[in-house]
Design a protein that fits this description.
Helix 8 (about 335-350) crosses helix 9 (about 350-365). The protein has a 7-stranded mixed β-sheet, with helices on both faces. The chain has a two-stranded antiparallel sheet with strand order 7-8. It has helices at about 15-25, 45-50, 65-70, 110-120, 135-140, 155-165, 240-335, 335-350, 350-365, and strands spanning about 35-40, 55-60, 80, 95-100, 125-135, 170-175, 195-200, 200-205, 215-220. It has 3 domains: about 15-235, Rossmann fold, CATH 3.40.50.150; about 235-310; about 335-365, no CATH class. With about 375 residues, it is an alpha/beta fold. The protein is rod-shaped.
């Protein structure tokens, strides 16, 4: 966004070219004239005009701007006064020239008409009024809105506003563009004006483009206006052009660096995509292994449950075994069991025992007589 109060020390060279061109253009009109500049800001423009005018009064509503102007700019024909529209601190028909650059857009539209009447009041009957203001038809398409511009107008709107208070009005456009100048050493003015068209298809001669402009400029008076404000302004040391070249070089370097960065990012993206694919494969394998582990875990869990059941059964068998062992111990310790053991030892190891076994066997094998039943 352009600075709201310009200074010759500003680094906004393009905006300075706009502002200086306006003051240079009106200089021939103010020679030996009494000039009032409304919205004089820090005063550099009023100071420049004081070199040509009979007297210059710089007026600004901001007391800090007036204080700054009084501190930095001195001239015997220059004064700074605090004040502003719609009421100016001057008597009727005070000024030969009123300069009103880049102020209208800062005023509420409700006081535009009243402000024009007030400017007409302080002008002499043959006085001249110079005004510049941004063209709203252009600025309304900007991505960033200037919060200080509350009263912008377009070309027809400015012409109507001026025509309502002045008999004669001339409207001009102002724009900064690249240009090639050809001039003679003894006649530095460059004229006429030619144009070329540059587009995607190339370049070719064409009429100068005048429809695209940023600023409206006009001159108005109650008497016919001779002469014209149409002119060109060249920055002699080419600081602006050199700055633009440097910026273009930086932009091109930045573009190349950005292009290389884009290529690196594309390669990195491909590497990451490959890595993602490998991770996806690893994830698939891990998922498969996880599913197998879950199945194995279920199998092991079933086996553990089975072992627990076997363990419980084993505990019961151990309990039964102990019970049987206890019962056998009772039997073994009983007197009858000892007698039985002695009997079987006698039967197995004594000669008489073998005889008794044979006798018992014959007895057991002899059939019974049915008549004895």
């Amino acid at each position: 966004m352009a600075e709201e109060r310009m200074s010759p020390q500003s680094k906004d060279y393009v905006e300075l070219l706009f502002h200086w061109h306006r003051y240079l253009t009106v200089a021939p009109w103010i020679k030996d004239k009494r000039v009032v500049e409304i919205g004089s800001g820090n005063g550099y423009g009023a100071r420049y005009m004081a070199d040509f005018a009979l007297a210059v009064k710089g007026v600004d509503i901001d007391p800090e701007a007036i204080a700054s102007a009084r501190e930095y700019y001195f001239h015997p024909r220059l004064q700074f006064t605090q004040g502003g529209l719609p009421e100016l601190p001057f008597e009727d028909h005070y000024a030969d020239v009123v300069v009103f650059f880049e102020v209208l857009e800062h005023l509420d539209p409700a006081i535009h008409e009243r402000s024009m009447r007030e400017i007409s009041r302080i002008l002499k009957p043959d006085g001249v009024f110079f005004i510049s203001t941004p063209d709203h038809d252009r600025t309304q398409s900007f991505s960033e809105v200037n919060p200080y511009h509350i009263g912008e107008v377009n070309g027809p709107g400015l012409k109507h506003l001026l025509s309502s208070n002045f008999e004669h009005v001339k409207l001009y456009y102002q724009e900064i563009n690249a240009a090639s100048l050809i001039w003679a050493p003894d006649h530095p003015q460059a004229s006429p004006t030619y144009g070329i068209l540059v587009d995607d298809q190339g370049s070719s001669p064409a009429a100068p483009e005048t429809s695209i402009h940023l600023t409206l400029m006009a001159m108005a008076s109650q008497v016919p206006l001779d002469g014209s404000l149409a002119s060109s302004c060249v920055e002699t040391e080419r600081v602006i052009l050199s700055t633009l070249w440097r910026q273009l070089g930086v932009a091109l370097d930045g573009r190349q660096a950005l292009s290389q960065r884009v290529e690196q990012m594309a390669e990195e993206q491909m590497r990451l995509e490959d890595e993602i694919e490998r991770v996806a494969q690893d994830n698939y394998q891990l998922s498969s292994a996880y599913v197998a582990m879950l199945e194995q875990s279920d199998q092991l869990q079933r086996e553990v449950e089975h072992l627990k059941a076997v363990e419980q059964e084993l505990i019961l068998l151990q309990q039964q075994f102990r019970q049987v062992s206890d019962d056998l111990a009772i039997v073994h310790n009983a007197r009858s069991w000892r007698l039985i053991q002695r009997y079987w030892r006698f039967m197995d190891h004594s000669p008489w025992g073998r005889v008794l076994k044979k006798a018992r066997a014959r007895v057991m094998s002899t059939p019974k007589d049915p008549r004895r039943s």
